[in-house]
Amino acid sequence: QVQLVESGGGSVQTGGSLRLSCTASGDSFSRYHMAWFRQVPGKEREFVGGIRWKDNRTGYSDSVEGRFTATRDNGKNTAYLQMNSLTPEDTALYYCAADTSGKRHLLPEVALYYDSWGQGTQVTVSS
């Protein structure tokens, strides 16, 4: 497991943008799948998007495809989630997560495959 520290949440109006950051401890960040999940009260944590370690290939949920972009800077041990064209439906607590196993080729979209989690950062979008 590694420590993940998130930042960048906040409040914006519909159509606005935010960029979330997630910085990891340790020196093996370049070998982790990194993903973003979100959760609203009363609902399960859902996959939003992520980026593979081997080839930086990204994947997204249908609800954010085309609006959100996951990137990473291995030199800074940091993953990012650029969120554009935000809507009130994007309001949630956002978590970054790391799969440090090195065993999976594909980017997992299920929370149980991630062994390290950030503390969460709130994103609120008002209409």
List the helices and strands and how they pair.
Blueprint: E1 4-7, E2 10-13, E3 18-24, E4 33-39, E5 46-51, E6 58-60, E7 68-73, E8 78-83, E9 92-99, E10 116-117, E11 121-126
Parallel strand pairs: 2-11
Antiparallel strand pairs: 1-3, 3-8, 4-5, 4-9, 5-6, 7-8, 9-10, 9-11
Number of strands: 11
Poorly predicted runs: none
Question: What value does the average pLDDT take?
Answer: 96
Q: Helical amount among residues, as a percent range?
A: under 10%
Strand portion: over 45%
Order of helices and strands: EEEEEEEEEEE
Structural class: mainly beta
> Please, how many helices?
0
Shape: globular
What about the largest sheet?
7 strands, mixed
End-to-end separation in angstroms reads 38 Å
